[in-house]
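Progress narrative, work stream C.
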Amino acid sequence: MKVLLDETIPEGLAERMSGFNVLVARRMGMVGKSQGAVLREVEDSAFDVVVTADRRMKFPGGNLYPRYGIVVLDILPATEEGYLEQMDRIRSAILGAKPGVVNTVRWPR
């Protein structure tokens, strides 16, 4: 499963996500790009899932059948350590991601 961690997610999380083909937006030169530009790259590069902390992330208009899912991490604290504490829930959300669907992982609830 090909996963993109967008610029809102700490890079160190990628090393803790064994079993996935994880790429990091920061390392791909996507920092500062618009949400639309990033999601076009996601579509063009055949990613399965985008992981973000941007609660406003949504599919671009006009794309009726996106081939990827979005997982939003609404986790506090929004730090690498905070995310690592919820890694089982994050993994489950990634594995359960469906094209065209936004899933949110919230902690605390």
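Work stream C, second folded protein:
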Amino acid sequence: GGIPPGHFIWVFGVARTGSSWLGAMMGDLEGHATWYEPYVGDVFGYAYYMRAGESQRAREDYILGDPHKEAWISSLRAFVLDGANARFPVLGENGYLVVKEPNGSVGAPLLVEAMPESRVILLVRDPRDVVASLLAAQRRGSWGAGEDSLADTDPDEFVRQRARMYDASFGKAWEAYEAHRGHKVVTRYEDLRYDTKGELEKIYSSLGIPIEGEQLRRVVEKHAWENIPERQKGPNKPRRKAKPGGWQEDLTPEQARIVEEITTPIMTEFYPGWERARATPSD
């Protein structure tokens, strides 16, 4: 019994890209459940890619060392499967588990290597909007603010650091997507906002999972931004504006330039023509 490895649907990318919304819609479909932020990719990915240098990874004795990668990759597979089945015992072998893992994307290449049968969604959003969202979240008086936030004391440096984090996290998600031989699909937050049902249809068709249009229509309507109670959204709240291109109001020209410079390859791949669009002010 249990959930088959081929019925895992990973959502990789970065935070503040609409992954909670996508996860909620997919999790509400018949025979689906969503595992929110297991951070399993963070646990293994951070240890493997961030903490261990090349010489550490080459060591015979290092627990995540390359000489015995096959052994610990199969342990990682069991770790994910057991963790999922313990939490979703009733999903069973016909169910699909959506794993919302943007914050664990540093370990995405290891996760797809451990579970080659699984399916992958690479969720991307304009890095400028993501950084603008993070900046707004950390400012004094907002939902994510802490003490002496860099967002208030040195917003340009905050923007630089968050753009680098976007680049690192999304870079690993993208690497996993490229390496994965199974069912996979790229979806842009902007497309999901403009034509939610059409984009979900594209996702399910690319993932090779049959789903009825009526079911999709129901979850799209239930989770539409327009149907979220007003008190639960707006400035200083986690659900802030859901407006593609909002960075033009939120970032200074210099801050936008910082983000563009750090994330140029991502912008060019997923938002072709962005430089030209940049030159003409939007209405």
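The chain has a mean pLDDT of 91. No further action is required on this item.
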